[in-house]
Amino acid sequence: MRKTVGFLMCLYCVFFLVKPSVASAQNLILNSSFELWLDSLGVRMPFGWYTSEASDSGSAVRTTDMHSGIYALQLTGSDTLAYAMTITYCQAGHNYYFSGWAKSPSFIAGSFIITWLKLSQQPIMDPVIIPILLHTSYHNFTQIVQAPDSAILVNVDVVALPGVTLFADDVTLRDTVLTGVEEYRYPLSADRRPLKLFPNPAKSVLNIECPNKVNQIELFDITGKILQNINHPEMRNRTIDVSGLKDGIYFIKLTTGDKKIVEKFIVQR
């Protein structure tokens, strides 16, 4: 699909002026529930989004078949893809939690696509593709993603395959590892952090050291899948066996009283 450079830059300027505070884990995507629709470029589009409606009438329209609120987005592919895309500012190296609600009667309906960009809009790395599969009622598609070190912008697309109709709503991207979980970002020296993981990268075991009493440990992979759930009231230190994990990036969440701490670690052999 072709995106107009001028439109992207105008859209970026809007987001740059109103970009949310990343410290608050606020959603980065404007009009993420498709509630506000305006005439853009002479075509009715959801505010903050550019859609295939500009070149293919009826391919991206407002619908009241929603997950929440009043409206949602309906994409209908003809002999080409139907799509909606938005672009916003991101923080290089930060972890983001993507969530999008969609439904379609088709076995493979389309996908959510996340693409990291330089300021020049040059893509960085391969895009993250989250398939939208058969669900006759709204289903939540989620994934944890990490912005590359040189990323300035992030492009989010919702795409319907040719001959397919899908419904999308509540598309969010939050600067946090897990929704509702506080991710500590340390200006502190390593010896003052509330949670220590070592060795990191790990090969076979991961040692956890926390000055507070730990009630629960949860281990996640990069997609957000829970790999381990350990309940050990009063626990302060523990060694976890990671020998069965493949090389890659993982996240560990500790519950300490009413607080949750999330840290990233790497398995590398």
What does this structure look like?
This protein has one helix spanning 5-18; strands spanning 37-40, 43-46, 50-51, 60-63, 72-76, 82-89, 95-117, 123-146, 153-160, 165-174, 196-198, 205-220, 226-241, 248-256, 259-267. A hairpin with an 8-residue loop joins strand 4 and strand 5 (72-76). The chain folds into two domains: 5-174, Galactose-binding domain-like (Jelly Rolls); 190-267, Immunoglobulin-like (Sandwich). The protein contains one helix and 15 strands. 5% of the residues lie in helices and 54% in strands. It is elongated and about 60 Å long. With 269 residues, it is mostly beta strands. Strands 3, 4, 5, 6, 7, 8, 9 and 10 form an eight-stranded antiparallel beta sheet that branches. Strands 11, 12, 13, 14 and 15 form a five-stranded antiparallel beta sheet that branches. The protein has a two-stranded antiparallel ribbon with strand order 1-2. The model is unreliable at 1-10, 12-24 and 177-192 (pLDDT under 50).
Q: Work out the strand percent.
A: over 45%
What value does the Rg take, in angstroms? 20 Å
CATH class of the largest domain: Mainly Beta
According to DSSP, the number of beta strands is 15
The CATH topology of the largest domain turns out to be Jelly Rolls
Which blocks of ≥5 consecutive residues have pLDDT under 50?
A: 1-10, 12-24, 177-192
Number of domain units: 2
Average pLDDT taken over every residue: 81
**Total of helices:** 1
Q: How far apart lie the N and C ends?
A: 40 Å
Order of SSEs, N→C?
HEEEEEEEEEEEEEEE
The class by helix and strand makeup works out as: mainly beta
3D shape: elongated
